[in-house]
Protein 1
Amino acid sequence: MDLALWISAWALAVVALFGGVSKAFVSKEKLAAVHGGGWTEGVGARSIKVLGVLELLAAVGLVLPALLDRVPLMVPVTAACWVLLMIGAMATHGRRREFGFVALNLAYLALAGFIAWGRFGPESFTG
């Protein structure tokens, strides 16, 4: 189970890293032009950048605290926060009837939920 949690955390960290880089460093106009970028309509550029920074922090928080053995509790806390972020993403894409993205966000939510459950519970770093 520990290996599955590590693989899940790394996979989700990669997703968060790519999403964070694109939101934090790519212009709103370029994001809006790509497939699935329509959600940026009605969202301020600063809000998109904030989402990007949050995703970058999630990428770090999903693996680095455990790797460095410094406040490893941050791993499941980060995963739980990712669940909340994905609920928001699912609501946003659902309003736009982008159900493929809703399903993708649901998969990310499930992965984050697995990490949070596993690291808070049976495979806790503190237990």
Note: Helices lie at 2-25, 28-33, 45-61, 64-68, 74-95, 99-120.
Protein 2
Amino acid sequence: MIQVGDALPSTTLMEYSEVEGEGCSIGPNPVAVDKAAAGKTIAVFAVPGAFTPTCSAKHVPGFVDKADAFKAAGVDEIWCLSVNDAFVMGAWARDQKTAGKVRMLADGDAAFAKATGLTLDLNGRGLGLRSNRYSMLVRDGKVVSLNVEAPGKFEVSDADTLLAQAKA
């Protein structure tokens, strides 16, 4: 499993864009993790699935609500990762009103989750291989803090915990 001090894996996530801008076409666009994280402080959190109860009711809203506080603490971007496709993440972004606050990034084939060792096997429950629930603070591509949840829990990966770590 990825640890504090480790670099993020050189994988590619996908991001759905609804409007053209900054060289991005409409639709899914690749995001090279190592390039996107270079020189930035990023609050990353991952969820087992888009539109799932805890993820939609608590996890994403906490980061959306605290987006300005994260910026004030020196965080350049907030990323939400999930093992879903870019179209689902785009629809979830609209539903959660994340525009300008949280980048909703798809880890469609779980490459990032596998590379970090933060997978969650939900095959027996009809959901396949997913990402574990966690949050991490990343500076210039390296993990500064990591908060991994126990199965079925939502206690340490919330926005308040990561915000306190960003302010420290």
Note: The mean pLDDT is 93.
Protein 3
Amino acid sequence: MKTADLVDAHGDDVHFCNLPFLKLGKRTSFAGPIATVKCFEDNALLKSELQKPGEGQVMIVDGGGSSRVALLGDQIAMILRDNGWAGIIINGAVRDSAEINGMDVGVFCVSVSPKKSVKDGAGKTGIPIQFGGVTFTPGAFVYVDADGVLTSSRDLR
């Protein structure tokens, strides 16, 4: 489903994330139940969560909008792909963007950086997170395509 069609059909039941995302990967659209990680310049917890079966979920990452270090690179993107995640949205940076762009993944991020993150495991999972004017609640739904990112409390597919 196109996000524009979802807005037309469901109006106030969908919410638009108003960040200027960079879109990477061969998967130009994806949708699914939301899973969340909140971490700042530390991707150890994100990597751990992506090693679990994704079962078609979309990982939403609140990295505080940091562009200093990347929370996702090509190695973790392969984990995302191989474990059945529908895609990932990161309020933060990624690296290895050329490699990720050639992979069968859907990655939306706000910036790129060649620097890797620390690996201390700081952060939280499975909590509501907010950025871009919307709240991403675990178990709610997200819809992503070239026009943007929408959330809904229920599955609209």
Note: Residues 21 and 99 are 18 Å apart (CA to CA).
Protein 4
Amino acid sequence: MFNKAKETSSSDSGASFAPPPKRTAMKSKAPSILSSDLVLTGSIVSDGEIQLDGQVDGDVRAGSLIIGEDASVSGEVSAETVVIRGKVTGSVRARQVQLASTARIEGDIVHATLSVEAGAYFDGHCRHSSDPVQTGDATKSAKPKVDAPKTDSKPPAPGKPDPLDSLEPPVAASKSGF
């Protein structure tokens, strides 16, 4: 009875507290631009487009990546498409890789398609893969975790023979001239 009156009066006042509309459509349309005065230490992850003009010390993963002429990345680059005009020190994994004439790559490239302009510098190995982005993620997660062997510092339980008791100490055969 009282709730109905409150609902009517609040809806009559015109104030609504509806959540803001989702902006998923804009997220995929607008690129993220990291300016030339930016120095970032850490990893960047985006499903959309990134234009990098600054310096990144870490891994960069994106849907589409453009590395500007004055930009540098020290780490692994992984994307669907990559255009490199600057410097990358580390491996590059992408379906489509384009090295501009100003590019400087020091690391391996795994690609589905690769184009290299005259003047680009590339020091590393180049390997074709039908799915380079997925291959890189699968190999990282497929590595088995190796645990250190467990050591038992407890003495053996009473009544059980100690396996080390049967070992004899080594005999040192020395020829000393003293």
Note: Helices lie at 2-12, 24-29, 132-142.
